[in-house]
Amino acid sequence: MLARALSHPEVEILMKIVNASVKAYRLPPASLWEDATNKVESLEFVIVELVSDTGATGVGVSYTVDIGGTAIKALIDDYLIPLVIGMDVRNYENIWNRLSRQSRRLGLGVNSMAIAAIDIAVWDLLGKLYQQPIFRLLGGAREQIASYISEINLSADDTVDDLVRRVDEYKAQKYDTVKIKIGKPDFSEDLERIAKVKERLGSAGRLLVDLNQKWSSAEAIQKGAQLDKFDLGWIEEPMMCQDIAGHAALKRSIRTPIALGESLYSRQQFLEYLRADAVDVVQADVAFVGGITEWHKIAHLANAFGKQVAPHYMMELSLQLLCGVQNSFMLENVIGGSFTELGLLEEPIVVKNGVGVPSNRPGHGLIFNRSALEMHELSAEKIKSNFSGGSK
Fold this sequence. Notes:
Elements: H1 2-7, E1 17-27, E2 43-52, E3 57-65, H2 69-84, H3 92-103, H4 110-130, H5 134-137, E4 145-150, H6 160-172, E5 177-181, H7 187-201, E6 206-210, H8 217-227, E7 234-236, H9 244-253, E8 258-260, H10 267-275, E9 281-282, H11 292-304, E10 308-309, H12 315-322, E11 331-334, E12 355-356, H13 370-374, H14 380-386
Parallel strand pairs: 4-5, 4-11, 5-6, 6-7, 7-8, 8-9, 9-10
Antiparallel strand pairs: 1-2, 2-3, 4-12
Helix pairs in contact: 2-4, 3-4, 6-7, 8-9, 10-11
C-alpha cells in the first residue's frame, strides 16, 4: 500500500481517529516476583483502542507494577482521548506532541505512561495503514534478535541450589545469557549466587545482575569493585535512578558495564546520563517513556553516544523495537511476565532457542484475548479495600 501510494503521488492515504476507548486490568505475575526492593503483587495493564475512519482498530498498552492503573486510565479517558479524536495517525509526531504539551504540568511518569498507550495504538494503526509490521516502519534493521532470560526471584527461601536448577532449565531452552537479582542483606550470599551461576553457565555463558536501586552510591563503589572479577555482562540499576553523579563515579571505578533506564521517563533524562558517561546499556521501557515515538528517539540518541539498547520488559513489543534499530543488544524475556505467559494473547509470541522473531502482521502483531482480559478487569473499589503495596 505504501509502495502504491509512493508510485502514485496523487493518491492520498488518510486515516483519522474517530473513536477511542480504554480499559484497565489487574492480575498477578505468572510466577513469583520478588527482588531486593519489591515484592510484586500484581501487574496492571491499561489498554487503549483507537478506531479509524477506515474501520481499522489500533491497540495500545501501558502498564504499572502494583500501583497507578486507575490514575492512568482516568487520565486517558477523561483528558487525552478527546485530544486525539479527528487527528490523522500519519501525523504521529503531532499527536505525541499535543498529548505531551497538554499533560506536561503533571511532571514525568503517569502522563508519559498514559501517552504510551495511545502512541502504541497509533503505531499499530500506522502498520495497518501501510500493511507493514512496526519493526519495518522503524527501519527493519534485522529479522530476529537474541534473547536473555530475566528472572525476578530473590525470596528469602530461594536457595542457591534452587537457582542453579533453574539455570540448568534455561540452558536446556538454549539461553546462554541469564539475568538474576542480587541485593541480599548479606552480600556474601550475592557473591555465592553469582559464583555458582557463572560456574553453571560456563565460559560460553553470560551473567547479568540487577539490584533494583538497592545500594547507596558508597555501597555501589565498594561492592561493585568485588563484582569485577566475575566478568559480568552488566550490573543493572545499582543505585537510585536520580543519582546521575553516583552512576558516573561508579562507571569510572569499575570495569563491569552499567545498565539502566527502566525508571527514566524521557529522552532528556537519558541525555543527561549519556552526557555524564554514566551508563553503558540503555534500557528504555516503551510503556514508561511515552510509547514508540519517544522510544525510537532514545534509541537513536543512544546510538549517537555509541551505546546499545536493551529495552526493559514488554517482551512482545520490545521484539518489534529491537528489530527496527541498528544498536540493539538483546531482548529481555522476563519469567512470568510476558503477555503469552499471562495467557492474554490469542496468538502466543514466544522465544525459541533463545532467539526472538517478531510478528510479520501489520502493526505490532499483538492480538489480545478479550475473554481472558475480562476476567481481570481492574476494580477501583476492590483495590481500595485490599491494597497494601509491595515496596520493601
